Amino acid sequence: MTALLKTTDVRCRIDEDLKARATEVLNACGLSISDAMRLFLRQVVATQGLPFEVRVPSEKTARAMMEARDIRQRFDSIDDMLRAADGETGENTKAR
After folding, report:
1. CB count, 10 Å around CB of 76?
2. Contact 90, 83 (CB under 8 A)
3. Which residues are bridge partners to 93 per DSSP?
4. 59 touches 87 (CB < 8 A)
5. What is the DSSP-derived secondary structure letter of residue 76?
6. Which of 22, 35, 37, 84 could serve as a FRET partner for 5 with CA atoms 20 to 30 Å apart?
7. Mean pLDDT within 46-66
8. How high does pLDDT run on average in the chain?
């Protein structure tokens, strides 16, 4: 299996206002500009063209994403989370 190493930089000069506005939208989607560019380029290759449209999640989806992040931060592993969901006490549960 080939390791996925980041071996090159991609640079793009854009208007400062566009960068700020795009950063705000991407942050709302849970992405950095670098994350979004990697995602975009992988999809360009996979679909051999412009592949998708990214939008800010709905209010309901954004709340669910925040709840998932909060839950993830309370546990050291998925096993700990599942034990807690089953009512078992896990030793690796993070303190709140």
Report:
1. 12
2. yes
3. 75
4. no
5. S
6. 22
7. 85
8. 84
Task: In whole angstroms, give the CA distance from residue 81 to residue 74.
Answer: 8
CA distances from 96 to 12, 43, 74, 75, 93 (A): 41, 38, 7, 10, 9
Q: Which pLDDT band holds residue 88 (cuts at 50, 70, 90)?
A: confident
CB 28 within 8 A of CB 57: yes
Q: Which residues contact 25 (CB under 8 A, 6 or more apart)?
A: 56
**Joined tokens for residue 54:** 């990214």
- Alpha-carbon distance of 84 to 82, in angstroms, equals 5
Work out whether the CA dihedral 50, 1, 10, 19 comes out positive or negative: positive
DSSP conformational letter for 29: T
- Amino acid found at 60: K
Return the structure tokens found at 12: 């793009």
Instruction: Please choose, from the candidates 68, 72, 76, the residue with its C-alpha nearest in 3D space to the C-alpha of residue 94.
Output: 76
